[in-house]
Amino acid sequence: MRAILTALLAFAAGVLLMLALPRTPDRTTPLPAPAPSATASASSTLPGDGNPVPGGDNQNADWPEQAPSPEQVLYDQPQQVRRALAALTPRVPGRPNLYLLAFAGDGSEDVFRNEAEYAAQLFTRRFGPSAHALVLENNPDTLAKRPLASWSNLESALDGLAKAMKPEEDILLLYLTTHGSEDHYLLVDMDPLPLDQIGTDDLAGILGQRPFKWKVVVVNACYSGGFVPALRSPGTLVLTAARSDRSSFGCGNDSDATYFGRAWLVDALNRTGDFIDAYRQASGEITQWERKDHLLPSEPQIDVGAGIADRLAAWRRNLTPGPALPFQPPRPQRTAAAASK
Questions:
Q1: What is the total count of domains within the chain?
Q2: Which one of 69, 91, 126, 307 counts the least CB within 10 Å of its CB?
């Protein structure tokens, strides 16, 4: 009897000790103020754009029957990233090179995939051999073809790019396109996969831990101006689709490109290779569209860090831009599992 009582007392003490110990937070811990994610109800909306957030009773509707299973997709991610890095074109010696990393975060709308893939085509075809591109995207049609747009893959891809390029000489261009929330989180979703959301400090921390001296960071999302303070630094150009308290426009399944993506990527960068001049052209074009549609102005933002304009000019000095690249988004190919029911 004494032995049993002793064992019970030891067990109880152990439980109390575990409860008393402080927990070490990590990024699998629920975020303090997350953007709506796959755990939101199907009737939820992302603030500002009125578009449904994936999840709830419809959580597997976008998973195509012909795709690998969710577990297989997650298991394959390290190899997918390695393949994408291995496919980069060789660095051109003797001059600055530019490395584009496009990140399409929301798998429920093709508009983000369209922009990420077009950006990769535009830079490598129009801006010549010193421009290189890698795409991370969440989309039902490319689950077996491209690495997911996830926090982990973003870090792995940046680590790989840091080895492929010369971080003290070359320019990193990070183009993020997805939904954004009023508390400045980017939606990262490929339902039903458990993907972490990315906030302002998260993104700044990810970039700050890596050796890139020259950066262009484009955040194409609602409320994306909230990312400017955390990303502001010497050697960094920050462009956003809206100010910190405004929506941007053009997302949704009835659109092929967002307002900012069409204005900056498709229109302006097919006229100029100067990213800052392209931003000015795009801002004017967006203002015209918003006035025509009677929309509250999104007011895109720009922050030019010390030295980055000169570094971009040095990259352009060796360019002979090719012809304008038509925007021809792919048509969806998937057959969702729910469609057959």
A1: 1
A2: 69
Whether 319 is in a domain gets the answer yes
Whether 17 maps to a domain, the answer reads: no
Peptide bond into 25 cis (omega under 30): no
Query: Does the pLDDT of residue 40 top 70, yes or no?
Result: no
Give the pLDDT confidence of 67-86 residue by residue, as tens digits.
889 999 999 999 999 999 99
Beta bridge partners of 74: none
Instruction: Quote the domain boundaries for residue 309.
Output: 33-45+52-340
Please state whether the predicted TM-score (pTM) of the whole model is above 0.85: no
290-328 residue pLDDT tens: 999 999 999 999 999 999 999 999 999 999 999 999 999
Least Cα distance to 234 among 306, 310, 313 occurs for 306
